[in-house]
Amino acid sequence: MSASTTFDLIVIGAGPGGYVCAFRSAQLGLKVALIDKRKELGGTCLNVGCIPSKALLASSEHFAFTQLHAAAHGIKVNGVSIDVPTMLKKKEDIVAKMTGGIAMLAKARKVTVINGEAKFTAANTVAVGDQSLTAKNIVIATGSAPVELPFMKFDGKTVVSSDQAIAFTEVPKKLVVVGGGAIGLELGSVWARLGADVTIVEFLPQIGGAADADVIRNFTRILQKQGLKIEVNAKVTGLKDGKLTAERDGKTLEFPADKVLVSVGRRPYTDGLGLDKAGVELTDKKRIKVDAHLKTNAAGVWAIGDVIDGPMLAHKAEEDGVAVAEWIAGKAGHINWDLMPAIIYTDPEIATVGMGEDAAKKAEIKVNVGKFNFAANARAHANDGADGFVKIIADATTDKILGAQILGKNAGELISEIVTHMEYGGSAEDLARTIHAHPTMSEAVKEAGLAVSKSALHAF
Fold first, then answer.
1. Phi and psi, residue 356, nearest 5°
2. I want to staple 192 with a disulfide (CB 3.0 to 4.6 A). Which of 70, 156, 198, 206 is the partner?
């Protein structure tokens, strides 16, 4: 092994958490090494996750618009068809552009990028091939990997993870998606728009995670109207003779499938990292154990993003990374984990932040709820986005915004201003008195703020 190279900070994993941590640390004057097993930076999110899936969502939405809505806008289109290879190339071009941009940023910030698999040899030393790297501080940012069902393992052809489902070379005839969370619903929507017969099979009583029941009820209705078949309370048992089997209420269900996308969650990825050599402890759920400042029990070793407790979200990892960089540099890093928005990028989207109405009732917290339908918003109609609504949940005594949920087109964009108001402890009235441009879909957010005090201007 070659002589050891010393850095102020080594970051293992170049996903959103890792590269952002490295960049912020470099801004603060630290000598930084960024290690990743992929040649391209950006991690799962940029290479096979968030970004390529959003590219496919956009392409498939264009196709759906052309088929379903163009004529109503006076746009006549004949002979519309799908060119999957071109669609995939568009996706790949976007990924290449973004990974290339991150590489340029790393170079500009004088971050040393090392390609290879890192393995701890001690708490302050890692090996990458024949290189030995030492640093006072090491950040683990190795992300997550898809969970595999033990009785139906990935084969990359018939039983696939999201990694393969963003790269089908042709539209599946019958696609069964196991799991009704964000990833499964998004990729299920992509291929359904392009002509696949898609069935979502979910073990829980509802799809869409922990959003309020009224949000999920309307969301489910809209997806079913789009052609997705949704089966809840169904426990998958296997795949045999081209059919996925499941059980519900003691009965066996069968779903024909030429492709099965298993999307039942992700697990922290620490394979081959040699955490035992560093003395790093894990939780009962096999995530890396950290304190309130994201330090592990091993001196100088930190962990961020998907490998620790909390939602597995790219923006959560980024915030973790910035805070750790600032703490290492002796600055006052800050993260508000209670205000972490979550989004399902279907059409319409679901965006949530903070406490929902159902959770407030369960916790016996008295709240006032303001709700405003996009059906009463002119810009929403112009954008073919009249389905859905905005909900604001506010403390009944103080009027402080406790949470929000949006079902609608561009909900992921609209949620941000609510997060901003919540960050400074703002009230529903603060939101309602914030001027919103007209005509915009964001006016529905203002109206929902007004509705908390039963003062909505454009609703009965």
1. -85, 170
2. 198
